[in-house]
Amino acid sequence: MKLLAVVDIALRALAQNKLRSGLTALGVIVGVASVITMIAISTGAREAIDAEIRSAGVNVIYVSAGSSTRGGFSSGAGGVQTLSLEDADAIRSEVPGIARFSPVARGRVQVVAGSQNWSTSIEGGNDQYLVIRSWPVAEGAPYTFRDVQIAEKVCVLGQTVATTLFPDGDAVGQVVRIRNMPFRVLGVLAPKGQTQWGQDQDDIVIAPFTTVQKKLLGITHIHQVMVSAQAPEQVEPSAVAITRLMRTRHRILNPEEDDFRVRTIEELASTRTQLASTMTGLLMSVASVSLIVGGIGIMNIMLVSVTERTREIGIRLAVGARARDILRQFLIEAVTLSLLGGLIGVGLGLFVSRSLEGLLGWPTLITTTAVGVAFSFAALVGAFFGYYPARKAARLDPIEALRYE
Q: DSSP label at 322?
């Protein structure tokens, strides 16, 4: 019997019981839609992490103030004030493979411009800070090396701060007050958008670190040193060299007593990717269970169909149909039902993925590979769970089948 004829018979058999066929395919529909959605969320999260890495800068190493552990007591992350400008200078001069560096001082401030005010974070860096972070200035210009040397009261605004304080869009050249000190706005940064955790990177003011350190915060220490390696392959060796240098400078013999942290952007991204992969694996397991349940439903209905059509099978065998024709017919019916459910499930999965992105703001990315994997999985489920009923139908005795009422 030709394949097209078998498919035609299968479709007619399924059409005779539309409601039953639809309910049977529902498990496959839900399973495939779940697989599509989970893969879209996972892929979107990975793309968001990659975008965040690119937005954070190139080959970046962070040296931050850490915690101090003495006598069993810990001060907590950032609880020490031992990171100094001398440490930053030593890293620049003694660690090979360093392209750029910037001391960083940060805090929370209230920024006032006319009748507008906004609470935001302020970060101080040197003239290489924006280069390390790959953050261009969209309007105006960045502060200069001289501004850093003389602790000039100048700043550049993130897009969120600029649009809030200056709705008319003329922030460059204006004067804002930060802790009652006048700062001249030199430029407005290009937008970076939110991180995958929802943090607005554009809600920031950036100024010379000397100004932030001495005039705004009144401190002598710094909070972080940002370092950019010359090449990607030099990131890890440079991070190891920085760790050794800092332990020497701070006279630390036991690594567990480090009062600083050295982290690379790749390390941070790896942690987040691992978390996203774990959650995706868990959700994919749930989606796979839905597909298996759908397959069991297909097997159940096909067994019922074999019982209902026993006499029909006997007649076909009596007029010359071979056992493999019967096997193929019922197997194709199961696969067809599963593929129809898979097709609808793909459409539902695409709709749900787009809805999550539009309504909840979750990053999703749908690929043809994901669609192909989900659709192929649906076909395999139909073939696997449809084989036993088809085999049972093919092994019916023609005489007994004709006597069946």
A: -
Q: What's the CA gap between 308 and 404, in Å, rounded?
A: 10
How far are the Cα atoms of 17, 125, 226, 375 from residue 82, in angstroms, in the given order? 76, 18, 16, 58
DSSP annotation of 179:
T
Summarize pLDDT for 282-292 with one digit per residue, the tens.
Answer: 766 776 777 78
CA 366/CA 362 separation, integer angstroms: 13
Torsion of CA 294, 299, 300, 302, to 10 degrees: 120
The secondary element (H helix, E strand) that includes residue 343 is helix 323-355
- Nearest Cα neighbor of 133 from 208, 201, 66 is 201
Distance CA 227, CA 219 (A): 22
- Residue 365: exposure state from Cβ atoms within 10 A (0-12, 13-18, ≥19): middle
Give, in order, the Cα–Cα distances in Å from 261 to each of 49, 77, 95, 239, 296: 22, 9, 16, 10, 53
Q: How far apart are the first and last CA of the chain?
A: 27
Residue 335 tokens, joined: 């696969």
What is the β-pairing status of strands 116-125 and 98-113?
antiparallel
DSSP state string for 255-308 = GGG-SEEEEEHHHHHHHHHHHHHHHHHHHHHHHHHHHHHHHHHHHHHHHHHHHH
- Nearest Cα neighbor of 386 from 293, 302, 326, 307 is 302
pTM: 0.61
Domain boundaries, the chain: 3-52+271-403, 83-249
The per-residue pLDDT for range 98-138, each reduced to its tens digit, is: 999 999 999 999 999 988 999 999 999 999 999 998 899 99
Tokens of 355: 């809805």
